[in-house]
Amino acid sequence: MKGLTPSFLLSTSVLFSVAKAVTLDLIGKRKQGSSLLFPRRLKRDDAGVFGNGSVALHNLGDTSYQCNVTLGGKDFEVIIDTGSVDLWVDGDVPGTKDLGVPMSISFAKGTVQGNINTAQLQFDGFTIENQAYLRAEFTQDLGDVNGIIGLGPSGASQVIGLLQSSAGDPPLDRIFQSNPATPNILTFLLSRNASIETLSGTTPLSEQYPAQLTIGTTISGLEAINSAPKLPALVDQFGINQHWLTLLDADGIVANGKKISTSTAIRNPTNGTLDQLHVMFDSGFSFPQLPKAVVDAIYGDIPGAEFIKDGAAASPDLAGLENFYKIPCDYEVNVSFFFAGQEFPVSPLDLSLGGPTSTGEDVCISVYQPIDDSLVGNAASGALDMILGMGFLRNTYILINFGDFVDGSTSNVADPYIQLLSISDKAKIHQDFVNARLGGE
Ligand SMILES: *[C@@H]1O[C@H](CO)[C@@H](O)[C@H](O)[C@H]1NC(C)=O
Ligand SMILES: *[C@@H]1O[C@H](CO)[C@@H](O)[C@H](O)[C@H]1NC(C)=O
Ligand SMILES: *[C@@H]1O[C@H](CO)[C@@H](O)[C@H](O)[C@H]1NC(C)=O
Ligand SMILES: *[C@@H]1O[C@H](CO)[C@@H](O)[C@H](O)[C@H]1NC(C)=O
Ligand SMILES: *[C@@H]1O[C@H](CO)[C@@H](O)[C@H](O)[C@H]1NC(C)=O
Question: Which interval of the chain is the signal sequence (predicted)?
């Protein structure tokens, strides 16, 4: 397939004399065999694994952002996932050491099983000896996914839990521990090349959705993120499942010119006020998950909008989907989120998605969808109200400072925080929509 060419190390920039910091190009891919029109949407935590610290692979069948990690000298293409923590790969790893500790991860649909191993890891220019990871011996229903590198906070690591020791620390913790001069930051930019986006476009996703990840530095040209407001990375109040979480401003969503009133579903929240939603950032999740009332406020009043509980019953083209709005593809939905008083507009192209169906009719669905009841108000899922995934992150450059979330860090290390920088200019995203959906006029 054209476009899936290697584009590994982009540039090496040195922040401080001894600090290592590297930028890595990511490759956007759509999983093989998925319907181009409506990729299979898996969001419910059927296996309940979300509550065990390993977020389900919600977007199997859909877009994912991948990069290579090198284990024992061999390259593995893995999905980057800020919603989970551990590393797993499927395949033979030269020189790997089997620790004989079995582990399994169950996804919404699919399973990985194997033993925890250690091997030398090279990732983004860093080399880590004896990196612990799950070497898959058995996988089921995972399509062509060959591995995931979790970039979430290590508090939720299953490998640490099973090894009962810091020998199980995930890759980013190991990188920060062994490179003390490197700032404890991870950034990633998921973007789009709107000039090649149309409803029936056939451009490879790797060209359509350029993406980059950095450790220890920021992307050149986007240094302004360093002076963005520092949003607190919340300590999960239930203490079970730590994610990258922060607070949205009170009533901090504006849709089509209307401010939406919000209230948290978390009982007795220890962070924020009752009208502040708790937001998780998850790069492994393409469809943002919002409270149903917010989704209704965004899409419900659109002329012709229809809420569909069971896609299969509505049309064969919608099979496999549930709880979404069907809306006219030419309706320009405008939504902005507000964090620390800053506005983060979302491209209308990230608010509806679709294409021609088998009957030739263009059909579009809501990209922002109601979060499942099994996640909200469930302590095992973490104290969250909503999940902002790719549909938001393609509009916003994100920096995560791990602070003292790194395992073994001392108490004088600062609290973790998150910074966001909007990359979606309102005039530009409007024009992108006009070009892609309205034939340029
Ligand atoms: C990973 O490396 C292989 C070569 O070892 C290359 O063909 C592939 O395109 C790379 N994938 C990514 C996502 O960079
Ligand atoms: C989740 O964790 C609980 C308790 O640690 C365990 O009993 C259960 O089997 C786990 N579920 C999965 C799917 O791993
Ligand atoms: C967008 O895609 C077009 C067509 O493939 C290409 O010529 C252009 O360089 C791309 N722009 C960016 C910013 O990647
Ligand atoms: C949020 O709540 C937790 C748990 O109650 C508490 O430890 C923490 O200090 C609060 N603030 C932040 C920024 O996490
Ligand atoms: C969205 O914003 C554009 C201008 O940026 C405007 O033309 C369009 O009518 C807006 N859509 C709605 C539903 O308000």
Answer: 1-21
